[in-house]
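Agenda item 2: iron/sulfur cluster complex prediction
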Amino acid sequence: ALALAKKEERINGQIKKRGHLVVALFERLSNNRSTVTLSVPDQSPMERFSKRHLNVTHLCEQSWCEIKVVYGFLKPHMKRREMRRTAVTTGASIHLARELEANPDAVTVVVHTKEDREALKLIKLIQMVPALESGQLVREFPVLGVLDGVFFLGVVDELYCSESGELVLSELKTRSHNSLPHPAQAKGHSLQVGVYKLLFDSMVQGSMKRDQLLHYLKLRPHQAFGSELQSYAQKLGLLAVTFGELVDHLLVVLNFSNLQPIDKLRLEYRHQSSGGLIGTREVEFEETQLRAELMGYLAFWRGEREPHGVDIEDIEEAWKCRMCPYEESCEWRRSRLQEVMVEGSKKAK
Ligand code: SF4
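Presented output:
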């Protein structure tokens, strides 16, 4: 009888334990489906999403909708799906074809560490500086540096010298519609080229620091390159065999270059399916205004203010939600719609 009672107790215990597991799993699934925390007190988005640096494209996404940026981190599978779709519709192949056109001898190098991967970008930069100095057009030019206390990375589509001797930064944008973009989309594009200019100008003016680069990208200066990267660097005549040595070399190249700040910012819009030119736009560069805007954007990343979503009552903005993958579950949109309905019913009374 005692043995039977113990067996029954054990079975009941197991059932209870499994019951707790099922409840926990159910709760987790329902959380995934509906409620997400858009901001966390005492934790900035940089900390919450483990970001040591930002890409310039983060700012462009942010200028579109900050809530969408937050959802992108909280629901990465949906962001990946959207990125795959936009890669098709934004003409990734046109960009690639252009890059290959400017660099027909591109080679594939096997990388083993994150230092190897970042080193490839720096090597590209080291090669492009003299090419640009000699008046050649360069494509996919990496830019990096600290702006308002945040480390940024970016890649400029095209840099070249105009016939009148001005250094022009040009960004290619492809569109599925054969028309120039809506001001809301163009706003992000102008911000992007403006921030590229700030980064490029500070690089050629000698503001880049070795320690910042190593610190923000969390890279080991003494890490030796993998064998494939070592032989690639040797073929190019580079003596560096560790990441730190390559950074030192880059700083020398930048500090002794005669490159000047960018004179003109240009956006080029092409039709995605035909590749035909839709039009070009020159972007005014107002440094004070741009830096003030940047401070506002970075206040979100530092957790100094709440994220802002689309103003659903503004006809110029509201359409963004209709093309957003998070529209169905967006809490910002849901609570704004409720507010609008309450306001509407109050007015009706
Ligand atoms: Fe932003 Fe609208 Fe998407 Fe919500 S539904 S994340 S407010 S674009």
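Discussion summary: The beta strands are 53-55, 138-147, 150-161, 167-175, 264-271, 277-283.
Owner for follow-up: CH.
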